[in-house]
Specification:
Layout (H helix, E strand, L loop, with lengths): L1 E6 L15 E2 L2 E2 H10 L7 E6 L16 E5 L7 H15 L3 E6 L7 H13 L4 E6 L2 E9 L14 H9 L3 E5 L2 H4 L15
Parallel strand pairs: 1-4, 1-6, 4-5, 7-9
Antiparallel strand pairs: 2-3, 6-8, 7-8
């Protein structure tokens, strides 16, 4: 079983508003990533979406999908590392499942990308998996086996600490093209062809 998780609690200050509610090609960022997850998840898999303390979900579909759970940050302006720890704690409480995580603003992530991360995790259940491009890790696209989740749960306080926690684990990298791992941090980074 897998818990498919989405980091979506940021305020999107550089973007101009929360990216969870941003739209591209006729759908919200959240609905886009949930569509990718729906294409690969098995019956009984959970979806967990991290939210900031004040995040309001305007998604037309996000809150109506089966087995979607919202995991709120415990503190304001927590950042992705804290959210990752909260998602790991949720997985521990609701598993015996592995955790596959992506960020809501990685519009190039497809169901195929997520399935690749999960399959790589299953090749060596004792190691976490992190996406990278040109030797640069993208810590917000990752997969963590159940037995390593406690190392992340509520321990990550910054991106640097998240990286350190991952580097203390058995770790493998999976290489992806730049368009897959691109974070759409500003509207100028939106795909021009509408495909993501």
């Amino acid at each position: 079983m897998t818990i498919w998780a989405v980091l979506a609690g940021g305020k999107g200050l550089r973007y101009g508003g929360p990216k969870i509610n941003a739209t591209h090609a006729g759908e919200t960022f959240l609905d886009r990533v949930l569509g990718a997850i729906d294409g690969v998840r098995s019956e009984g898999d959970f979806v967990a979406i991290s939210l900031g303390t004040e995040t309001v979900v305007a998604s037309s579909q996000g809150s109506q999908r089966a087995q979607v759970h919202f995991v709120r940050d415990a503190v304001s302006d927590a950042g992705p590392a804290h959210s990752m720890g909260r998602l790991a704690a949720f997985a521990i409480e609701n598993g015996p499942d592995d955790l596959v995580v992506t960020a809501v603003d990685m519009l190039g992530v497809t169901g195929e990308t997520l399935m690749c991360m999960r399959n790589e995790l299953r090749l060596d259940a004792g190691a976490a998996v992190v996406a990278r491009h040109d030797a640069s890790p993208h810590w917000v696209l990752n997969a963590v086996p159940r037995e390593l989740l406690s190392r992340l749960a509520d321990n990550a306080t910054s991106v640097n600490s998240l990286q350190s926690l991952f580097n203390l684990m058995p770790l493998r990298f999976v290489d992806f093209p730049a368009q897959v791992v691109l974070d759409v941090n500003t509207p100028e980074l939106l795909p021009r062809d509408g495909s993501g």
